[in-house]
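Sanity check. The docking grid for DOR depends on where the pocket ends up, so I'm generating a full predicted complex first rather than guessing from homology. Inputs follow.
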Amino acid sequence: MLVIRWIKKGAFKLIVDSILVNAKVYLNKEIVDCSIAIENGEIFKIGKESQMPKADERINLGKLLVLPGLIDAHVHLRDEGKAYKEDFYTGTAAAAAGGVTTVLDMPNNDPVTMSVAALRNRMQKAEKRILVNVGFYSEFPVNLGEVAAIVAEGAVAFKLFMATQIGGLNIDDDKALQEAFIKVGELGVPVAVHAEDKALLTENKEKLKRANKHDPAAFLSAHSEQVEVKAVKRLLEISSESNVHLHFCHISTKEGLHAVIEAKKAGRSVTCEVTPHHLLLSNFDVERYGMMLITMPPLRSSHHIEALWRGIADGWVDILGSDHAPHTLEEKSASSIWDIKVGVPGLETMLPLMLTMVKKNRISLAQVIQLLAEKPAEIFNLKDRGRLEQGKKADLTVVDFKQKFKIAASNFHSKAKYSPFDGWDVQGKPMKTFVNGQLVMDEQEIIAKPGTGRIIRRDRK
Ligand code: DOR
Ligand code: ZN
Ligand code: ZN
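Predicted complex below; grid placement will be based on this.
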């Protein structure tokens, strides 16, 4: 009961926890001057300052812009056996610094998240250390009979990695995949896929290795366009008899995106993600800068990049995800391309880069909010988040839309202090991040205690 919650410290006055005043707030696709009252971690009221209740704390935002807290559905937080690359604290600090209030954690960990025990253990470890909200993916277990128990434990979705065998489900076995999709479809849990075809990729790699090719160009040709397209088409085919919702991570090719669009037009329950690095960097950058830009799927030529931007403009691309994939600099510096760890950190650059694209009229602010808050909340059933509305969780991303600055990877909160965007001039800086009503990041400084973020367990439909 709201009235009871207003009664604080024995006083029968209507006092909420905090009000944010003098803000510009993104509401119903418009930016309006208003204030936000926060009570018990939720948005209590949005309106004029004169209509705000009394509050314990009054924060003057000095006309900064308040956006719904961003949701990054593609983050590798690492920790446990891979804590030397990133841990729950540093990864979620990077999120808060980047204006991201909720991340979904990928399962390719040590141990791989693919059992009730591994998931429970990971949640327990994370709980005391996280600064933003974290939901967890699980890979498929060896025994599909355990799928329901993993969902009951609170996994937000399953992840299927098709480039190499990571989970317990044999990715070469169409029948097993089909059975898994039927099972997960019945449970109403989405499956996010890394769509690169293992067989074709392995064949390409072996050929290149035999020809003694181990430079960035060889990596690009191994991870060819066809490697992605083949996996997308195969998965759409295998899942066609089930109710599963397939979510394609980091689509990078024109034809891959078109296969997804065709499936959508045919009424299939399918969504897709694009990353900022696939939108803003190209194969030429890989050949020039080498190891830093080695990521999977790889960066592509302008013909693909244009198709991805068009997919965003036409509303076919559902979400943006950073695919924050931190490694140590040593791991990124191996002399052979085949030994380099693939992936780039992205949590602290995604929002400034996208706001810069808004300034350049490449994308609208409404589209950025849709791709980074509203749609991920919908796809992953995060009912209390993704929009600025009374009753939703008070996850807020406060930005200075005017501020110009240079990306400086050495200042990252992530353990991975490098970036393909290092030194880029951007406009639009995350200034404050509120998570469940608490100020976690203020002017790039983390000011909250570890454990401020919540573990997000999937709501039963
Ligand atoms: O570049 C990548 N890095 N792609 C992946 O799919 C995995 C990720 C990682 O975990 O480092
Ligand atoms: Zn991936
Ligand atoms: Zn990833």
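Relevant for the grid: The two ends are 24 Å apart (CA to CA).
Also worth noting: The chain has 14 helices and 18 strands.
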